[in-house]
Amino acid sequence: MKLYYAPSACSLAVHIALREASLPVELVKVDLASKTADDGCDYLTLNPKGYVPTLLLDDGQVLTEVSVLLQYVAGQNPEAGLLPIPGTLEHYRALEWIGFIATEIHKGFGPLWNPTTPEPTRQAALDTLARRFDLVERQLGAAGYMCVFR
């Protein structure tokens, strides 16, 4: 497998999951500005969406989207315990949090990355993110990690 990633991007979550699952992977850095990868491929040919992460499977198939890749990696080595057993309520709670983090938190940073975002919009994004992080903090509680078994 090859994981196409960019530094300081959400592809880090997949990289961590691959390591935690003890799966062999080749890391390939992507320059998101030029859409080129260190292995010489035209990144847009591999992933027309143009962002990371992308997982190139050994059989040549391509998977994208962090939430999908995390589930795929967990399924490749269930003994690693990265996700609860499929079909259980705990499993769906974990997916609920993956979805929340991917869509409500991660995408909520968009206005902050754009230098042309007007100040009122930036502040509204910060306020919304603060409420969402408060929710995560309450869920974390004293455990210090996301517990889907509550």
What is the total tally of β strands? 5
- From the 3D structure, determine the CATH topology of the largest domain: Glutaredoxin
How large is the radius of gyration?
17 Å
- Poorly predicted regions are none
How are the strands of the largest sheet arranged? 3-2-1-4-5
- As a percent range, the share of strand residues is 5-15%
User: What order do the SSEs take from the amino end to the carboxyl end, as H and E?
Assistant: EHEEHEEHHHH
Residues in helices, as a percent range = 40-55%
What is the structural class? alpha+beta
Keywords:
5-stranded mixed sheet, 150 residues, alpha+beta, Glutaredoxin
What does this structure look like?
The structure is a single chain. With 150 residues, this protein is of the alpha+beta class. The protein folds into 2 domains: 2-80, 3-Layer(aba) Sandwich (Glutaredoxin); 89-143, Up-down Bundle (Glutathione S-transferase Yfyf (Class Pi), Chain A, domain 2), CATH 1.20.1050.10. It is built from 6 helices and 5 strands. The protein has helices at 11-20, 43-46, 66-76, 89-106, 110-113, 119-140, and strands at 2-5, 26-31, 36-37, 54-56, 62-64. It has a 5-stranded mixed beta sheet. Helix 1 packs parallel to helix 3. The protein is flat. The model has no long low-confidence stretch (mean pLDDT 92).
Write the layout of secondary structure elements.
Blueprint: E1 2-5, H1 11-20, E2 26-31, E3 36-37, H2 43-46, E4 54-56, E5 62-64, H3 66-76, H4 89-106, H5 110-113, H6 119-140
Parallel strand pairs: 1-2
Antiparallel strand pairs: 1-4, 2-3, 4-5
